[in-house]
Amino acid sequence: MSGNTTSPSVSSSISQQPDANLLSINTATVRQQWTLDKIIEGCARHEIRGISPWRDQTQALGVTETARLIHSHELTVTGYCRGGMFPGISPQQRQHNNDDNRRAVDEALELNAQCLVLVVGGLPAGSKDLSGARMQVRDGLATLLDYSRSVSMPLAIEPLHPMYAAERACVNTLEQANDLCDELGDNGLGLAVDLYHTWWDPKFFAQIKRAGLRRLLAFHICDWLVPTQDLLNDRGMMGDGVIDIRAARLAVEAEGYRGFHEVEIFSANNWWKKDANEVLMTCKQRHLDCC
């Protein structure tokens, strides 16, 4: 396992402290306190330059209005959440999923998003065929790429922790995501590296190096709490858990990544109960202190 479990040496030209201008907020982080229009305004007011909205929030506000507000506040859409969910129990269901993914690409384009993030989906209802689900992901992704490449919208595969293999994502490691890029081509296809889902991977640093700059499309940060009370809605603020976030950031930046660091926190019993302004201010400070 040599070279996989330890962080690589980092060029002295890479800053040990992150660039404050590269902070982005995934709108899930304060979605329980604010509607999307207020999140956009709040990010701008707190001088946070990146934002990553979710489709349900965007559709509630209206895609055109969302795009107008983001543009008027001079924010960068660091990713659009989300496409994917490719597997289906029938050809008709899979076609429905494909059609919805094309709409997600169109929405991402209207928002001028840097990428469409893909949570690929798990087992179809009633199925135990994990390898079959992964083949459906491969086939659905290939179909979507035909369209996304024609309109120049990059797709970012987000591997999810294995605990989600059944219902959310049967792509669970950076290695699996890299394998898909190898097979389908990395023109307009890459990775969304979410530390909540990938920090534990013994091949993390080797697979970041394998991905290289071309495939590193998004970088999501938060922390893993010990103990974790809820595997979906108990993510930690950076610095409150066990992830070496700085080592991971330095690893992606060693490959040339200079994109945003996107905070994505689901926290039913803590951060979603706090004042949203406090959450954003804490994100800014912890980004500098812990990332």
From TrEMBL:
- Entry keyword set: Isomerase
Q: Which GO terms describe its molecular function?
A: isomerase activity
UniProt domain Xylose isomerase-like TIM barrel: residue ranges: 56-276
The record's listing under Pfam families reads: AP_endonuc_2
* Entries under PANTHER family matching the protein: HYDROXYPYRUVATE ISOMERASE (PTHR12110), XYLOSE ISOMERASE (PTHR12110:SF52)
Q: What is this protein called?
A: Sugar phosphate isomerase/epimerase
**What organism does this protein naturally occur in?**
Yersinia alsatica
Top-down, what is the taxonomic lineage of the species of origin? Answer: Bacteria, Pseudomonadati, Pseudomonadota, Gammaproteobacteria, Enterobacterales
